[in-house]
């Protein structure tokens, strides 16, 4: 039905009439979207089945993640199937714009930011590389909140991506599993062995919804299985309504927070719900193939994305011990050989721990198992480090009334990885140093990546076209071949092409900004963009204070010269994160002032695009000249936004943090703008003190002026920005904003001058960034995971069967 335009049109028309009982003329955009989606799902169904059949013999990986930030799927699926053009042309004949159709799909926003988006990129790479790997997550009824800005303040509206159903999912009620909470543990004897069972539990039914994960130009279709919580058949006789409500709450909302946890019990329920359902389902599948679990780890790897799914480890132990009567020693051997863990942060406030008083009643058997793991672990430490109580206390999994999830993850896995070189080094030398001393062989680095299929082929067809014209198509399947562009870094036709593509994308974004924000921005100005979650460590504050500084200079000095710049922000703040919301307000206050002051003469525009999400990122990133990656060094584990910008030819304005360090390695120092404190310097100040932000206030007039404006009535706001002022001056500026201010100002000036004075050099730098971005394809990352950690192999890369 997709073999040519005519066949597609005929099938599509027939399908609409049959499904909706109306003629094509009367169908809505939504009818058309649903129809096309259903056609695509059917089209891949035989490949989906076939992939699973072939996988039955292969070693598989299951990727467990509390977040999958997928975004829209229609366009990407069409593109991966190689039928985008056929469909686009067929629809055009029917006077339907495929682009418009794509835009009515709601983003599947089952994640907060980088961590969830990484999981989505990994799924795309696994399928595209023909690797046996499936995702397991939660089907939140409401994904990340929808952000509205009113008078500069963030409002949060509940997101409702399922309002018209989700065309990509298949409900599999026959594969539902029952998850127990509460109750107590009884011991009994079975064949002379002491055995445990969980009784008086309250059950919740976990119902899987499967989504196809379609590889690029291959027959492979992997699966993302998302669990939905529903009332169980074994529901209690009393308080049925309360039970029902509490049950459904488990998959009601995604936690809108990257770093802390609230609503402890519910959050813990979500975590156990995800892992227990996944482990049960994985083992069921396994036992259809193999007779027992003794060689499980030879056929399955289970990956835990950050600590949220770490209870998979004791849950798996429980199944081996209680359901399969295995000895502890053997069960532990199989478990540690099965699990692997990725750490995503060095921020200590983000390290999960659970109070025993909450944990134990909710998950009594799991707690017992963790306690036993801890006992045995501490005993092994004691043998190695006799008498070192302090060390053992610091490494314990259960201590001071808390269960430490990261410790459980490290102890229960055979591989622990960080997500960029510098991050892994910090883990080894600081956060996890004691564990590294104990078992150095477990630790390894896997620098993050992004799928070039979404972030280049899909998001930037204009640039894709130019690259194909220049070096052909090889790089589309092998992104490291973008390096073929090296020969064109001085080529004037190619550089002119780059300039044209960038301008085109800036025009598109400018149009959107005019429509959404009513602000006129000049596509000829430098587009300087910072889009990511709002967090103190990411230092949007440094950016906005610098804009205020530029504004002051213009007001005071008529001769102040600066090439026109458009500053673009996009960021959601966690609803309970008051400080982050203040920064959003400050950005808007500065924007209002700057955008409306004739003195500025359009040399600066400040734009905040609301509701940052994957689909918006796809429109913003191709339009960037400058990519702001200015976190306090040592705080950003990797970042992946930085990679998306680089791949789209933006130049990085960044600190030596996370993957910026490796971007620098790839492009060379003359093709990136690096400034500010280094990670060692930040960590030294943190250890030993020696930084006083007040000194910078007193010794730098520009800083003083900007700081004073936060509190002296300059903005005419109700309570102004005392909170920000206090954090920077009274609380000594934890994230070194003032310390890095001058270096940032100077680098920004250098970048502006270069853009103004030597556009050709700028374009060469752009070309170098694109040609070196292949390293940051998640295909490279996934190959490393596959060979070093999971030991899985591709299923003999089928050539696309022409249909
Ligand atoms: C890539 C991405 C992120 C992560 O951005 P960072 O700059 O690495 O923090 C967050 N949100 C969305 C929607 C993304 O696409």
UniProtKB/TrEMBL annotation:
It holds the Pfam family Phosphorylase. Keywords: Carbohydrate metabolism, Glycosyltransferase, Pyridoxal phosphate, Transferase. Its EC number is 2.4.1.1. Gene3D superfamilies: Glycogen Phosphorylase B. This is Alpha-1,4 glucan phosphorylase. The keyword Glycosyltransferase applies. Its cofactor is pyridoxal 5'-phosphate. PROSITE patterns: PHOSPHORYLASE. The keyword Glycosyltransferase applies. It catalyses: [(1->4)-alpha-D-glucosyl](n) + phosphate = [(1->4)-alpha-D-glucosyl](n-1) + alpha-D-glucose 1-phosphate. The lineage of its organism: Bacteria, Bacillati, Bacillota, Bacilli, Bacillales. One of its GO terms (molecular function) is 1,4-alpha-oligoglucan phosphorylase activity. It comes from Bacillus kandeliae. Belongs to the glycogen phosphorylase family. It comes from the Bacteria. NCBIfam families: P_ylase. PANTHER family: GLYCOGEN PHOSPHORYLASE, GLYCOGEN PHOSPHORYLASE, LIVER FORM. Phosphorylase is an important allosteric enzyme in carbohydrate metabolism. Enzymes from different sources differ in their regulatory mechanisms and in their natural substrates. However, all known phosphorylases share catalytic and structural properties.
């Amino acid at each position: 039905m997709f073999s040519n335009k005519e066949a597609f049109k005929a099938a599509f028309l027939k399908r609409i009439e049959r499904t909706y009982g109306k003629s094509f003329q009367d169908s809505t955009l939504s009818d058309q979207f649903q129809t096309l989606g259903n056609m695509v799902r059917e089209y891949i169904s035989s490949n989906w089945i076939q992939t699973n059949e072939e996988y039955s013999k292969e070693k598989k990986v299951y990727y467990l993640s509390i977040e999958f930030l997928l975004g829209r799927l229609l366009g990407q699926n069409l593109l991966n199937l190689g039928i985008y053009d056929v469909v686009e042309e067929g629809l055009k004949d029917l006077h339907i714009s495929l682009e418009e159709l794509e835009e009515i799909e709601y983003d599947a926003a089952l994640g907060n930011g980088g961590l969830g988006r990484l999981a989505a990129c990994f799924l795309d790479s696994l399928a595209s590389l023909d690797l046996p790997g499936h995702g397991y997550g939660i089907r939140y009824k409401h994904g990340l909140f929808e952000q509205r800005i009113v008078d500069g303040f963030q409002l949060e509206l509940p997101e409702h991506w399922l309002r018209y159903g989700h065309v990509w999912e298949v409900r599999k009620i026959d594969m539902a599993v029952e998850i127990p909470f509460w109750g107590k543990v009884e011991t009994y004897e079975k064949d002379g062995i002491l055995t445990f069972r969980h009784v008086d539990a309250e059950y919740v039914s976990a119902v899987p919804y499967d989504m196809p994960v379609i590889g690029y130009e291959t027959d492979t279709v992997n699966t993302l299985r998302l669990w939905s919580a529903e009332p169980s058949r074994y529901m209690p006789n009393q308080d049925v309504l309360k039970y029902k409500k509490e049950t459904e709450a488990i998959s009601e909302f995604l936690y809108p927070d990257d770093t802390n946890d609230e609503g402890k019990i519910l959050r813990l329920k979500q975590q156990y719900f995800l892992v227990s359902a996944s482990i049960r389902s994985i083992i069921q599948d396994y036992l259809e193939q193999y007779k027992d679990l003794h060689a499980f780890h030879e056929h399955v790897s289970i990956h835990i994305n950050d600590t949220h799914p770490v209870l998979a480890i004791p849950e798996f132990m429980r199944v081996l011990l209680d359901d399969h009567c295995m000895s502890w020693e053997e069960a532990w051997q199989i478990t540690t050989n099965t699990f692997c863990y990725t750490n995503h942060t060095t921020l200590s406030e983000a390290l999960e721990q659970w109070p025993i008083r909450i944990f134990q009643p909710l998950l009594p058997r799991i707690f017992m198992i963790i306690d036993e793991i801890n006992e045995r672990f501490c005993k092994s430490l004691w043998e190695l480090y006799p008498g070192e109580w302090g060390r053992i206390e610091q490494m314990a999994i259960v201590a001071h009334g808390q269960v430490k999830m990261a410790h459980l993850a490290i102890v229960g896995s055979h591989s622990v990885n960080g997500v960029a070189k510098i991050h892994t080094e910090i883990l080894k030398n600081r956060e996890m140093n004691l564990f590294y001393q104990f078992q150095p062989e477990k630790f390894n680095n896997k620098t993050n990546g992004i799928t070039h299929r979404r972030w280049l082929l899909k998001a930037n067809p204009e640039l894709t076209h130019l690259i194909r014209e220049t070096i052909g198509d090889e790089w589309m399947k092998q992104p490291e071949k973008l390096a073929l562009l090296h020969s064109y870094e001085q080529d004037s036709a190619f550089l002119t092409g780059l300039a044209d593509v960038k301008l085109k994308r800036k025009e598109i974004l400018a149009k959107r900004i005019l429509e959404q924000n009513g602000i006129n921005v000049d596509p000829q100005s430098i587009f300087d963009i910072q889009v990511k979650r709002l967090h103190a460590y990411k230092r949007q504050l440094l950016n906005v204070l610098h804009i205020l500084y530029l504004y002051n200079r213009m007001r005071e000095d008529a001769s102040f010269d600066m090439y026109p710049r458009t500053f673009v922000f996009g960021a959601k703040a966690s609803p309970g994160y008051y400080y982050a919301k203040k920064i959003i307000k400050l950005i808007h206050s500065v924007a209002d002032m700057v955008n409306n002051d004739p003195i500025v003469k359009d040399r600066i525009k400040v734009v905040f695009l609301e509701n940052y999400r994957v689909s918006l990122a796809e429109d913003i990133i191709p339009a960037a000249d400058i990519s702001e990656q200015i976190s306090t060094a040592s705080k950003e584990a990797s970042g992946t936004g930085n990679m998306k910008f680089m791949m789209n030819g933006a130049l990085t304005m960044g600190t030596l943090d996370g993957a910026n360090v490796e971007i620098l390695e790839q492009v060379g120092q003359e093709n990136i703008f690096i400034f500010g404190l280094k990670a060692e310097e930040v960590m030294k100040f943190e250890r030993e003190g020696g930084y006083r932000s007040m000194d910078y206030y007193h010794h730098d007039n520009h800083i003083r002026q900007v700081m004073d404006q936060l509190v002296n009535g300059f903005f005419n706001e109700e309570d102004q920005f005392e909170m920000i002022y206090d954090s920077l001056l009274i609380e000594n500026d934890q994230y070194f904003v003032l310390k890095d201010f001058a270096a940032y100002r100077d680098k920004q000036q250098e970048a502006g001058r270069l853009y103004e004075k030597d556009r050709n050099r700028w374009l060469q730098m752009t070309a170098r960034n694109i040609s070196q971005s292949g390293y940051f394809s998640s295909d490279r990352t996934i190959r490393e995971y596959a060979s070093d950690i999971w030991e899985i192999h591709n299923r003999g890369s089928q050539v696309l069967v022409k249909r």
